[in-house]
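The instructor's notes for this session suggest beginning with a concrete chain rather than abstract definitions. Hand out the sequence below and ask the class to guess, before any prediction is shown, which regions might be ordered.
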Amino acid sequence: MSDDQPIIEQLRPKPARRLGLSGKLLLLTIPLVMIAEVLIYVPAIANFWTNRLNDRLAAANTAALVLDAAPSGMVPDSLARQILTSIGARAVAIKMGQQRRLLASADLPAAIDHDYDMRDMTVWSSIVNSLQLMTERGDQTMRVVGPAPGRAQFIEVVTDAKPLRRAMFRFSRNLLVVSLLIAMLTAALVYFALHYLFVRPMRRLTASLVGFHENPESSARIIVPSSRGDEIGVAERELADMQRDLVSMLHQKSRLAALGLAVSKINHDLRNLLASSQLLSDQLASVPDPRVQRFAPKLMRSLERAIAFCQSTLSYGRAQEAAPDRRMIPVEPVVAEVRETAGLAADASITWVSAIERGLTVDADPDQLFRVLLNLVRNAAQALESQPRVGAGAHQIRITGRREGAVTILEVSDTGPGVPAKVRDHLFEAFQSAGRPGGSGLGLTIAAELVRAHDGEIQLVEGTLGATFRITIPDRPVELQSIRRERASA
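After discussion, reveal the predicted structure:
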C-alpha cells in the first residue's frame, strides 16, 4: 500500500494555479485599452477619408476656375492632363443651371465603382464608406460630388480609389503606432496606480488573514492599520479590531478550558469530602443543644447545595443552566438565608438593610434565586471590604423588593466605589470583573444567566451611589386551559 502511494500522488491532478489580482487587473486593462483604440481609430479614419475627398474637391474647384476662364477649346490637351494629374483626377465636370459641362478629362473609365456626394455626407455614412473602401482590392474608380464656387450648382471629380486607399493605410499605420505608444504608457500608468492603490493593500490584508489563520492566538499576527481614510483604511482598522477581539476571545476560551479541566480534577475528591461532612451534619442533628438544633438544618441545606453543585461539575461550566423549577415563593426567607450564608448576620462592619414589601412573592426557582442574590451580595461585600471605613454605617448593603403588576423587582445596592466605566460594556461576560482584586468575574455572569432563564432582566442602575443591580422577574403567563381544568376538577 505504501509503494502505491507515490504513484497515486503523481497521478492525482495538481490544483491549477489561480490568476492573482495583478494578473486579472492586467487582463482587464488590455481589452479596455483595445476598445479605446477602436473607438479612437474608427472616427479618425473616417475623418481622414472625408478630408482627403474634400481636398480633392478643393483642388478641383481651383482647376475648374482655370479651365472655365479659358476660351472654349483653347486649353491644350497636354495642359489639361497636367492639371488633372496635379489634382489626382481623371475628369472634372461642373453643372451650371441645366447644363453639365466637362471641363477636362483623361482616360475616363468605362464604369464608376463608387459615387460619393459630400454635400449630404453624414458621420455614419463616412465611417461605413471609409471602412468599405479599405477592405476592397483592385483599381476601383469613384465619383466625388461637392459644392462649387460661383454660380455653379456642384462640381464632380472622377478619380482613382487606389491612391486614397494607400494613404489611408499609411495613416492607419502611423495612427496605430502612436496610439499603441500612448495606450501602453496609459495602461502602464493605470496598472501601477491601481496596483499601488488597491492591489498591494489587498495583498497586505490577505497576508494578514492567512498569517492570523495559521496562529490565531498570537497578537503579533494582528495587522497594523494604515492612516488611509478610504474604504481600504476602514477595512484595515475593522480587521485589526476583529483580530484583537478574536485573540481576546480565544484567550478567554483557553482560560475556560483550563478552568473546566481543573474543576473536573477536583470535583471527585471535593464531592467525597462534602459527602463525609454531610454524614457528620446528620449526626449533629441528633444533638439536643438548642444552638446546634438551630444551625444544623441550615448547615445540612448548605451541604446539599454544595453537593448538587459538585454533581453538575460547576453549573457555569455546563453548556446550559438547568431549567428553573418555578413556583410562587416568598422573598423574605430567601433574603434572610442569603444574609446568613454570606456571613453578614454577625458582621458589624457592614450594615444590612432589607426593605422588602410585606408578603412579597416571586415566581421563581428558590435555589436559583438564592444563587443570584448570593452572588450580588458577595460582590457588594467584596467591594465594601476594599474601601477604608470612614464612619459608622458608611458600609451598607441594601436589598429592596416590590411588585409592579405581574412583575417582581429586586434591587441589591451598596455604598462602595461603584463599577468602573471601562468594564460596564462587558459587565455580564465571563471573567470581566468589576476591577476588584481577587474577583473571578463569574458571579455576575452566573446571575445574569439564571435571571434570563426566568425570562427576566438584570441591569446596572445608573446614577446611584456605589453600585445598584436591578433584577426584574415576570410571572409566567397564565394558561386558561389549565385553570379551566382545575375548576372542572374542583
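Then share the key points. Residues 1-11 have pLDDT under 50 and may be disordered. The CA atoms of residues 37 and 458 lie 69 Å apart.
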